[in-house]
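Support reply, case 0932

Customer input (verbatim):
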Amino acid sequence: MVQSSRFDSLNLNKICGKYRVSLWQCPQFLFLVMGMVIIVAIISAYVVASKYQEPELAAVSVLILAVVLFVVGHMIISAFEKVATASLSKSEFISIMSHQLRSPLSAVKWQLNMMLSGDGNAAVSNESRNFLEAIYDQNERMIRAVNDLLEVNRIEDGDLVMRPSLFSLFALTGRVAGEFEKFSLVNNTKISILAQKDLPMVYADEERIRRVMEHLIDNAVRYSAQKGDIAISLEKKNDNVLCKISDQGTGISDSEKTRVFDKFFRSVNAARYQTEGSGVGLFIAKSIIKLSGGEIGFSSLLGKGSIFWFILPVRRGGGPINN
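Our regenerated output:
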């Protein structure tokens, strides 16, 4: 057991994994690097000092240099260790609190579903139903916010688990667009889908790609001008399927384009149009697409609209589907 513990203390991958940081952010690895730098600096200083000073003075100079480098190195490594420990504590806190919040929110959702469906003993009046539906909508917002927070935490810790499989992106797009039909009608927008014939299946995590589609379509509807059209196109590009979501909305200014996929970024138009969100949707979408082996991007003109696109790989042998 003692020998195993000693080997564990030398296992940098395991130690860095504990802190959930990369190798170049790991305190123990940085300590080894700093040690090598100190050794090289001491040897170089001794060689140079020996040419111009007496051996005793050269030894004292090298000793002073070694002490200074050791103190500075210790301060730097200690600072990195505190940052790594704080990051680990933050991740654990977010994970615990997210799970703690999801349980009561899910319970509230279940109870509201029971009341709205009429399965309870007491009948719900129309006025009460309106109140309950409003509570249900707000509860759903809370659940989505907690799920987004948990997802961001998983992405940053490298713990986002992908479960890829073959599925029809065309069929998924149709289902998601159908779910937004009522919302788009309220916003005086129309969603249309144009797909290439014999479109092949894609190989990715269907549930997570659903989240990407939901967020991109939701943004397109929210930021669309009144009576604007939203066009979704699907086509095969080499060994990938390309999906484009175009809107005739407010567009994105040049000054904001570099920050669109940043975590917690909210554009000026978000406040102007009073749209909901915490600014993590596109950050999550980009991470999911990248982990799926694809790419994501956009083009936009202020006041004219935006086109958000992503590509997903086609696994060989996943033949065409009928549109």
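We compared this against your earlier run and they match. Two observations from our side: The chain has ten helices and seven strands. Residues 1-9, 317-323 have pLDDT under 50 and may be disordered. Please reopen the case if you see a mismatch on your end.
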